[in-house]
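Lecture notes, continued. The same structure-token format from the folding unit now serves as the input rather than the output. Read the line below as a description of shape only.
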């Protein structure tokens, strides 16, 4: 969105403040449920080398979903094939580069934002810079004329009646928002701050382009700041709330644009209830039995059915998955392979290792686990996750 096409309506001032929900309201109940999830001890039985592969998968979903809200036409199936083909992250194919940029932004956030830490203006500027890196500037592309800088022009929001603040007002509103998110509040209001700041960043529209992607990454950063631990046991996919139904997302943003207390609280309920449902759903994947029986074994069966792996490879990988802690020694794998010569056994194992489906544990070259992130097993993983409601089917529909 650039300065050549600004809205002709009038700017409406809205104060930035916390609106307290009524005790006993659905919003208050949702906040209490999220508080329980925030402090819930996860560290479940899914071992870390499986958890971090799962986390990579949901970061793919987060990145793709955020890009598609802005009109990127890449489907999940198409993106999976690019991952399997190991397309470089700095690809010149801009629709894919846009998604990889969001993945990089997620990594930047996880490396630089900590629980109860500050989210600074420089953090936000760096996230914006990463998001638009290597992309053609508007109107031809999804990049920016001013990467990592507040817009020096007026902008419009396509399909919205909201008129963002004049360019000269943007720095003041932006600094006010940064101060707002870093001000200590009653912990029960932390989550309200997350929902309100998402809307406020959209309301300011501080950059010439890439605002939607930036805003959703800002929300991810807010959740980490507020104690949703992504480094030791939690997977977050907040964009899922917004990408399942883009129209509902924009309609709810428009409610908050009115500045009316009840409609702003309705926006907060939309965000926080969606977040609660998403966290509860994904937490189920951290149950070892669920992960084995509902996700991994069916994914291997999917790969076998499509002849992406042989029956012997299926048996080997199934044994690994069902082994204690989903790891197995190479000597035990020999028993699964059967009466083959040592040379043939080595070839079979090498083929699985070369495919990335069998990976040694760090520091233990002769102890293996299953690998499913960057190979043909990924097709089955996403098929199963979509079938069980962990990934929205809308990600495989072409954007209109």
């Amino acid at each position: 969105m650039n300065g050549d096409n600004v809205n002709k309506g009038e700017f409406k001032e809205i104060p930035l403040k916390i609106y307290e929900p009524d005790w006993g309201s659905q919003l208050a109940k949702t906040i209490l449920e999220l508080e329980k999830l925030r402090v819930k001890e996860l560290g479940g039985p899914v071992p870390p080398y499986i958890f971090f592969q799962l986390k990579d998968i949901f970061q793919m979903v987060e990145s793709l979903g955020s890009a598609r809200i802005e009109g990127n036409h890449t489907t999940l199936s198409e993106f999976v094939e690019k991952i399997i083909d190991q397309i470089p992250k700095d690809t010149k194919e801009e629709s894919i580069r846009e998604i990889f940029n969001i993945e990089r932004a997620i990594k930047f956030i996880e490396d630089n934002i900590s629980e109860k830490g500050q989210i600074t203006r420089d953090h936000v500027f760096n996230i914006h810079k990463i998001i638009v890196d290597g992309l053609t500037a508007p109107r031809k592309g999804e990049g920016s004329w001013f990467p990592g800088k507040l817009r020096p022009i007026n902008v419009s929001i396509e399909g919205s009646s909201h008129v963002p603040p004049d360019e000269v007002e943007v720095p003041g509103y932006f600094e006010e928002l940064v101060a707002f998110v870093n001000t200590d509040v009653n912990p029960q209001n932390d989550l309200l701050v997350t929902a309100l700041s998402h809307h406020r960043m959209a309301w300011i529209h501080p950059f010439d382009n890439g605002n939607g992607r930036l805003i959703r990454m800002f929300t991810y950063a807010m959740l980490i700041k507020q104690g949703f631990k992504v480094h030791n046991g939690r997977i977050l996919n907040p964009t899922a709330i917004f990408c399942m139904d883009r129209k509902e997302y924009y309609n709810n943003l428009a409610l908050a644009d009115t500045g009316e207390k009840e409609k702003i609280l309705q926006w907060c309920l939309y965000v926080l209830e969606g977040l609660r449902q998403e966290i509860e759903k994904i937490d189920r994947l951290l149950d070892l039995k669920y992960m084995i029986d509902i996700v991994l074994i069916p994914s291997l069966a999917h790969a076998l059915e499509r002849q992406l792996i042989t029956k012997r490879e299926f048996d080997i990988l199934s044994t690994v998955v069902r082994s204690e802690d989903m790891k197995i020694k190479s000597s035990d794998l020999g028993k699964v392979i059967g009466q083959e010569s040592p040379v043939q056994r080595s070839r079979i194992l090498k083929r699985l290792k070369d495919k990335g489906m069998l990976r040694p544990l760090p520091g233990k070259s002769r102890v293996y686990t299953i690998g499913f992130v960057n190979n043909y097993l990924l097709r089955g993983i996403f098929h199963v996750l979509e079938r069980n409601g962990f990934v929205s089917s809308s990600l495989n529909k072409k954007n209109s």
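Point for the exam: The chain has a mean pLDDT of 91.
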